[in-house]
Design brief:
Order of helices and strands: HHEHHEHEHEHEHEEEHHHEEHEEEH
Radius of gyration: 21 Å
Strand content: 5-15%
Structural class: alpha/beta
Number of helices: 13
Distance between the termini: 60 Å
Largest sheet: 7 strands, mixed
Helix content: 40-55%
Shape: globular
Bound molecules: 4'-deoxy-4'-aminopyridoxal-5'-phosphate
Number of strands: 13
Strand order of the largest sheet: 2-8-7-6-5-3-4
Length: 403
Amino acid sequence: MAPVFSSFVDRIGGEGAEAWEVHILASRRIKAGEDVVNLSIGDPDFVTDGAIIDAAVDSLRRGRTHYTNSRGEPELLAALASHYRKALGRSVSPGQFAVCAGAQNALFASLLCLLDRGDEIIVLEPTYVTYEAAIGASGATQMQVPLRPENGFHLDPSALAAAVTPRTKAIAINTPHNPTGAVMTQAELQAVADLAIAHDLWVISDEVYAQITFEGDHHYLASLPGMAERCVIVSSLSKSHAMTGWRLGWIMGPEVLIGHVDNLLGCMLYGSPPFIQDAAIHALGAGQAVTKTMVETYRKRRDFVCDRLARMPLIAHHKPEGGMFAMIDVRATGMSGQDFAMALLEQQGVALLPGEAFGPSAAGHVRFSLVSGEADLTKGCDRLHRFLTDLKTRSPQNVKASS
Ligand code: PMP
């Protein structure tokens, strides 16, 4: 006999965990000294800019080591408001923000304040792996709308409209998209906005990759008419400033929602560390130039990798429009993404994430991460090319007709 847990623990133990099997295996081998190229991660390889680190250290030395406001320091809330005022081209107030421990925490906190058991939330699939558990925690049910590879993983507005039921309370979008690299167009966002207005829905817009676009700028759903009262942005400095470990993110939404989030943060987080908030203020101001340099590097990496992938047998790839990942279609090998990723790791020591982990529409795909330097990307591409050439030579009967 042992005391039992709450039903909550079942709802946060989603399948997302399996996504990391290849990654965990690869990390273990690297630690053991094996020659493995790990292209499965989503953590920028850049170090946080020195001036941002200095801002945190100065703050620590100034004694900024005490409790803070649960919703965030006024200066940071003002800096966020100013950032979004420029981005959205409309008025935005500091009262519309709550500072969280990364976009992940922001997503979790906003879902808890928006959804109930019995509600439905529409998610676009493939979906970033933590959504399942975060939605599960709220008690709501996720209804998947596929983003199909043949459509470049872009939204089919009619499929989205068909997924709305009387129980639908919210739509979750993520642009630029992890894992596919698709960036939602103005027309796609307008379709989401129209539907949300017609059915009085919330829209949670995960914009952690907003600054990382390669073909024109990120479009903000929140800038569209009628969105101010129903669009909830979750974002962070994790990707734009290579600050994943700092755990600094935020929610932007209507002030009433932010009031509820403040209550939640008060009983859960009790405020973000003040020295990290001080560093964030610097990052959102003078530190913005850092992002530009990183995006140029990601662009070069994307072009290099896509050029190499285009010359490999048996695969097709989606050139990312934004974000840090390229999706590779391996269906012509006859293997699942999971089997492909495992075999590639075993035979060539390269770790990619299987698409199945993100949802059925990404089955038969693997995610190639661009957060490694030139040497590793070259080595990864060389080995992947060798793996595919071997595969084609060894078992031509097992692979579908392909170049
Ligand atoms: N959403 C998406 C789509 C992501 O890819 C990630 C991180 N990989 C997150 C949210 C969480 O980011 P953060 O580090 O800000 O919590």
